[in-house]
């Protein structure tokens, strides 16, 4: 059975990270955005697809789902898209595309096979990670399929291309 294509994902924050980094294009490096509460670590490695533009005007966000550690920040990985969490924040729609690495693709190659625990962990994190930050909020709306997540990626590529 042929596998789906992979896409580059640049990781800003490692699984379990409490420091929210963002990539500063002008400086060409990661900079600290804020420190998360100790009770609120990132559930999975978090970053973005380079050369994309999401609905919120930033790069399209991505998480790499992996049970073990080992995915390091400031590194780009080739990952498979398996679905997405639909969410919104104070800047507009801010979907999080879920991905896996090649060694996990066989058992987690589609959002439909992710455990409810994994999905709940991700959704809970993103629905609460901006609590107690003045002027910021987030709301989640559930998950979409792999094909719809691909569509988000293609739209983000087109948006980026039109803007550059």
UniProtKB/TrEMBL annotation:
Keyword vocabulary terms for this entry = Hydrolase, Magnesium, Metal-binding
The record, for Gene3D superfamilies, names: Inorganic pyrophosphatase (3.90.80.10)
Q: What is this protein called?
A: inorganic diphosphatase
Q: Which cofactors are required for activity? A: Mg(2+)
Q: Which GO terms describe its molecular function?
A: inorganic diphosphate phosphatase activity; magnesium ion binding
Q: What is its EC number?
A: 3.6.1.1
Q: Which GO terms describe its cellular component?
A: cytoplasm
List GO BP terms, alphabetically: phosphate-containing compound metabolic process
Q: Name one Pfam family in it.
A: Pyrophosphatase
In terms of PANTHER family, this protein maps to: INORGANIC PYROPHOSPHATASE
